[in-house]
Hints:
The chain is α/β, with parallel strands linked by helices. It has one domain: Rossmann fold, CATH 3.40.50. The chain is 44% helix and 19% strand.
Amino acid sequence: MEILITGGAGFIGSNLAAxxxxxxxxxxxxxxxxxxxxRWNLEWLQxxxxxxxVEGDVxxxxxxxxxxxxxxxxxxxxxxxxxAVTLSVEDPRTDFEVNALGTFNLLEAIRCSGQNPVVIFSSxxxxxxxxxxxxxxxxxxxxxxKDLPKGVPETSPLDFHSPYGCSKGCADxxxxxxxxxxxxxxxxxxxxxIYGPRQIGLxxxxxxxxxxxxxxxxxxxxxxxDGKQVRDVLYIDxxxxxxxxxxxxxPSLETFVFNVGGGPMQAVSLREVIQMLERExxxxxxLRxxxxxxxxxxxxxxxxxxxxxxxxxxxxxSVSDGIKRxxxxxxxxxxxxxxxxxxxx
Length: 345
């Protein structure tokens, strides 16, 4: 099998590529290497096996079309994206061009090529907006939905908030419509908080990795709000397993939009994550608190009933075990990560 991974030198993309190499697939990584850490991730991938790297940008339609004219792919994992809400607010044009136009370019390149690979898109729970229609209450020192014990289902109304929510939501809907109109084999994963090795997190994107990096490096961590906010988290290995399982199952799918996360069993508050990190490191972590940021959700938990039923998939890595693995990876790579953090400062 030959797979193309856009954004293949990023966090999720590099983990997908590594799995493809282990399975002895032909792996093509398409990336513009604009994010800190991507060159480091690419070097790691190249040490694992014969990955083919194509430097390019999804905003460049001719580059994508040329790639599909030269190669024939069995699967495409679309990971290339602008990933931070704050950056989308600062520069909404770039956010739109990367997320919305870049996805459109990819779909058009596939349609024009006459190929029909399985295309899996990394969407986001942000397409559901603020979820103000669901009542939230505090239980045992953390926030929870009052009447959604399983979490947010795919039937929830779309309600794009922030330029990031709009651009990813636009891409999400183009993926769905190209399946309806043109018969492309697209699958949409509306992902919650994914974490694990190779992730160079930020305060508003990849927050769990950011907490871990700061904790290991002895840097203070800023919590916006009170720390009782809850997210369902999913370790990267479980997500990668799902992507490859979805490629195999695509011919039998009757639905193609899925919420993907840890679900209620993997829901944790920010304060609980800090406590887990302190136990792993054996020392307290310096915390700072700041005001809530606009659009911050007090709770988001994915209802993963549909994806579990359709693919026979469940998360297997517990939150405590996942954090332990991430701490070990950060510790082993702390010198490089310290340089990358300074580069972003």
